[in-house]
Automatic annotation (TrEMBL), chains A, B, C, D, E, F:
SUPFAM superfamilies: Arginase/deacetylase
Source taxonomy: Archaea, Methanobacteriati, Methanobacteriota, Stenosarchaea group, Methanomicrobia
Record NCBIfam families: agmatinase
Swiss-Prot/TrEMBL cofactor(s): Mn(2+)
Residue sites binding Mn(2+) per the record: H107, D127, H129, D131, D215, D217
Database matches in CDD domains: Agmatinase-like_2
Family according to the record: Belongs to the arginase family. Agmatinase subfamily.
One example GO MF annotation: agmatinase activity
PANTHER family: ARGINASE/AGMATINASE (PTHR11358), GUANIDINO ACID HYDROLASE, MITOCHONDRIAL (PTHR11358:SF26)
Protein name: Agmatinase
Gene: speB
UniProt keyword list: Hydrolase, Manganese, Metal-binding
């Protein structure tokens, strides 16, 4: 008889039964320009009730998919302690052979989520920003450094899509670093997302498993105004959805980060919740075929 | 010397003189997720003063068109009573051989507007949602059921455009029901709106008269964030305008519904008001040619 | 390790252990002017994390008090069905000899909360409005009728405080009905809240148990702007707190209703959450003394 | 059957039948700090539907009072042209021996409202600002000069209440000008509003008729945040209501100006509408006694 | 050690050293529908800190470009006095052979900026509105007349892009006036921005110098909701950026006007600041090649 | 001719000439519940232009007072580095025998401001919270610990006013620590602010110099809703003004902290700016008498 509107809609399974395990991390302490991504897990859960359980494009009903929402991860004031907490949670989900879906919070939280996989993993990130600094304002685990540390510490099978911001050093780092791939927002506009996804699949063909991270500022501020560091000239939601649907079969972990819900009246959290639901449906569909 | 900013701009004619009769219905009681469409008639009227009287695309000056604004229809707490009120108003306008334009309020209000026509009529609706349930949460006349009751009770010449949400039953209902036509938002994106309109015109060629309903959530939330049930991946305003301009010659009744103006700072009501103005100009132009 | 920010802060006990049982009812369908009280349970829970666990005035630490949060009651579109749900929940808490605290939603929800007590109970309500109509816009169980039905059906030991709005019939009903007591906001201003509470205690001296209902519009809109039907010239939060602290010893059920959190940026939900916390502390303190 | 929510609630009489004639003036061109009072007539009308028709304090039902709402006065870009328009409207109402109630718009609009009376009239204004400059930023008819021009051109029976802002010259002007009376917000706090009203009545005892103007920034920003030039340490709504009720018997014209409704979510316009309703009730009651 | 966040980011040069000189003009007195562009300089400066100094598309680092921010121009209540002030400021920058960048404020401010050039200059404006009236509501220097006065008084080498609003007279004026060029938003959509820019370059081939003015309402309200007179069916930010980058080499003065930052939560001011930064980078790059 | 609206109004003197030196510190990294005090210096400067230069209560014209605004202090991501920066700035002002006025930013910034004085100093703080923890969430220099570190490291002549929140340990710390004084918001309500100020002056009679810190959450959220950690039942602005005026003669440093301007539409920053202006006027007046 009781319904807690603040668990993600259709997350009605226990941890044990679930294939997908959602959790939030209300942490935004290293954010630089505008803060507030700590409120995003709450707002994405609330927004999830706006949508039908059925996904007509993919013919998947989320009411039939075993999903669990663990609630919010305990956060600390210090970023390193919080990353350790997230690492423990992510690891426990990965160990249980379930698919973790992290709702940030800021982008630095992605690092422990990727770290939680023991075997080789490809990493695909949609972002307006390179996030390739070694440290930012003296903080190593800043949200502005997450891609760099993932490349340095975890995997060199790295693809970024939607990039349109960074200092000159980051642009040069990408040019020099031949192992990784990066597509700017101009590339998305010029080449089309399908050709980029073809190239991405070829590049990642040796990876059995992909981690997919969505920094919502990859999307144009018209569609996603509720952001900490909005950047004009971005991707459309359809392009982002194409990436999610195409990569879902290999994807074993997903996150949506950097939504600051206080800077709009709901549409960014709604889009984030919708893209999570679309990822679950696409992944579930691919799992059924096997 | 006196101007009431709260009648629709350029609605300076008496009921008797008018060819177009506007009225509002500030009713949102069956809305499920976010409410507030009761404020939309007031905000669309206010927004209408932002625009020039002249429509340069169509070379029509609304200052020259006989338009009347009746004000707001008296609403009741119970949806059925309100629908009866709307039916009486719509009928009186239809009987007077004028073109009613209803400013909602929620989508359930469209039913009595269509019912008011005595002869056979085609029905075209732009919407993100099928609205094909027989009842929703125990309420038959819910905004989530309006298309179904129109098909069942009034006309089987039915076209929906922009659809991207519904339970599985609604998708199956559409597949099985060969008499009606439905185009998803993906169809709009893939086929182009012009091809869809060609098909629609062919399908409706036996209808002399069309009723056209615009649930504003057909439009992408980037352009129309002020909605009760926003749904990403929607139509563009240009696509919606194409539908309106193409179908205007046959259209004998029009409505704009489901704007919740408290969820943005004006752009959705402005777009709604603009589309009403564009409909009037396009219809008036077609009337002059005859 | 996991914390769900969306259960009320410090509600860490199981139902069985708890002395206080919180639940939300996200229902606002009969609201007349501005809607949105359906979001109040979510926002009061969020706001509850702004406060310390310790209440220095009363020397009670909520971390030491056994509190349970059941989540949100399942709501229906129809008011009568929702009231039945609330009745079942409230009854189950009362039967378990715990103190229910209902977070509305609209004021009509108070009726089943009071009905849930089997023995005679006094009823004290703070409200700007009499809510003494027999029906409103054709709806019997409207939020505008709740006090009337409680008097008619449940108890004639009735006190209202803070009243400053109603049709003439309600003012006359109160004058004629000698059994009940009513204090206007002018009375609060003129007599002082302490004298009113003295009179109230005398009037209720035969009641062992009181139900206390707080319609937040009792409070002045300066302190509580996030309301469905704001009414100027209201009570101060200190006056409301005095009522709560004075009556807590006898109070066996409490609710906070009619907050519409979309009409401010947090202060009304924060005040509502704070007053719930103050009620719990005051009641718990009185329970320790026995 | 039709109701235009955008005429003031209960303004159901024709001009001829009415004793009270409301009109709006959506003009804010000389406002200096924050603009937007042009939207106040619309928002006060909307807010007026939040309130009961019956005033329990005064035992007057506005449904029984003959009130007319003329709509909005035509405004021009140039302040002088707009003041001429207002003068014509106000004069026509005064000539018809009805009581004009002007909903601004900015404070400069009060000048033609007072000018419309042919015989000697007392002028009482509640305001945070002296408005005693001869001109402001080169504009004679600025909202910052309205009191000065009324004293210079129309009447030296002048009382201001709630003052707490002005350049030194204005403070000295008041000290030197022994004919007029001025009470600061500190006076209101220290002397009490009743003593000030006693003095005011004595001072105005030779005036048969008073014009009463309410610049809403007289009120503290906690109660009235939606203002162009908010000034802390202001009057309470109860104090303002005392002035209105006490002076209503002699008052033959009233206005509420300087609300900027875009700077809050409704409470200032609601308070403005409520105070208009209270003035009408108090005045009507005094008229019935004669 | 001190940083004033309210000077435009990277504007670290003195006036003498600078090649680019920014200044704001917080003036919006002739705005007709919604006001508030007076706050745009402040908000664009604030927004400028959201962006990296490096422009990866153009390989220009703004930290290396000599930019000066003069602060805000002193504004008067009367439009003519303000235009004189702007003329003096713009002239002093032009005389010093630097590139002025004016941050409005309303569009009327562009007139003195163009007037400041002594030799023949081409004028390109992006706008939703023709702004070709001779006067508007009795005011000659209204924001609705700026293009007309520039054509009449300063230069007949005139191109407008993005137009979709105007009275019939303005459409006819453009048709008759063969010397000027105008491209509607429909043209942009139909011809593509590149073909329009080809034609524009040909048309302006005899002009050595161009002044470029960006009325932000040229852009669709989805991307730029914070506007005084939003007009649906507008240009995309990418199209605007194409115009800026293509014309930058010849451009010797630039402005961004008509942002009303109170009508959104930052994205319009952010886009305005970004486009200013893009203009500086594109112009600087072209200057380096010479 | 140029005016930068973003320096505090009337801060027209050079550092050398000035007696009062304002600076902002846009830092909020340790804030726990709601962030955003980093924007407060910008918004208080903007708000300062709403007010007259003349203070009629005190007969001081700020245009005649030598005030300098240094702009914003450079902030770092790490709190300790930022406190060092603030210490350097504050020390340089103190050394120059001027009165520093710091606009926060969060309350932790007060510590280096007080530390900057070399001789014994009394410390008076208005706050809802004790801020007496030794560390908060692992951070020593948290805004929740500022009072404790000032007592432990700098001065035991300590008075807090307006307190109504803290863990039990803080309440006990105050009870045990007989050297310091603390007045709760209940004390302010019960004793009156004047009696508290009498006691405070007696307690501080041996201190020649006082540092005065205003955490804006001392004030009730009705008057100051734009806060990081709003706490109901607070002080009125008049009570705060009484403290400022009474203590100004001995006060040699002042700050206003913890305003989060994104949580209201201006009134908290306006009140903060007004109180700074009132402090300057009161202090200047006391300096003239000597
Ligand atoms: Mn990122
Ligand atoms: Mn990013
Ligand atoms: Mn619909
Ligand atoms: Mn829909
Ligand atoms: Mn009630
Ligand atoms: Mn009520
Ligand atoms: Mn005034
Ligand atoms: Mn004023
Ligand atoms: Mn323009
Ligand atoms: Mn324009
Ligand atoms: Mn503090
Ligand atoms: Mn505090």
């Amino acid at each position: 008889m009781f319904l807690n509107m603040n668990l993600f809609a259709d997350a009605c399974s226990s941890f044990e039964e679930a294939e997908f395990v959602l959790y939030g991390v209300p942490f935004d302490a290293t954010s630089s320009y505008r803060k507030g991504s700590k409120w995003a897990p709450l707002e994405m859960r609330k927004a999830s009730y706006n949508f039908e359980t059925y996904n007509g494009d993919l013919d998947v009903d989320l009411a039939d998919v075993p999903i669990h929402d663990m609630g919010d991860c305990d956060v600390c004031c210090a970023v390193d302690d919080t990353l350790n907490e997230v690492y423990d949670v992510a690891s426990s989900i990965v160990k249980a052979k379930k698919i973790p879906i992290m709702m940030g919070g800021e982008h630095s939280l992605t690092y422990p989520c990727v770290k939680a996989y023991k075997e080789k993993i490809g990493f695909v990130v949609m972002d307006a920003h390179y996030d390739l600094r070694e440290e930012y304002e003296g903080v190593r685990n800043s949200h502005a450094c997450v891609s760099r540390h993932i490349i340095d510490d975890i995997t060199d099978k790295y693809v970024s899509i939607g990039i349109r911001s960074g200092p000159k050093e980051e642009y040069e780092y990408v040019k020099k670093n031949k192992k990784i791939r990066s597509y700017t927002a101009n590339d998305v506009d010029g080449m089309g997302i399908d050709r980029i996804l073809n190239e991405t699949e070829t590049y990642l063909k040796d990876c059995d498993r992909i981690y997919l991270s969505l920094d919502m500022d990859a999307i144009d501020p018209a569609y996603a105004p509720g952001l900490g560091t909005p950047e004009p000239f971005g991707m459309t939601p359809r392009q982002v959805r194409s990436v999610i649907r195409r990569l879902a079969p290999k994807t074993v972990g997903f996150d949506v980060v950097e939504i600051s819900p206080e800077y709009d009246q709901g549409i960014t959290a709604q889009l984030g919740a919708k893209l999570i639901r679309d990822f679950i449906a696409a992944k579930w569909k691919s799992m059924q075929k096997i």
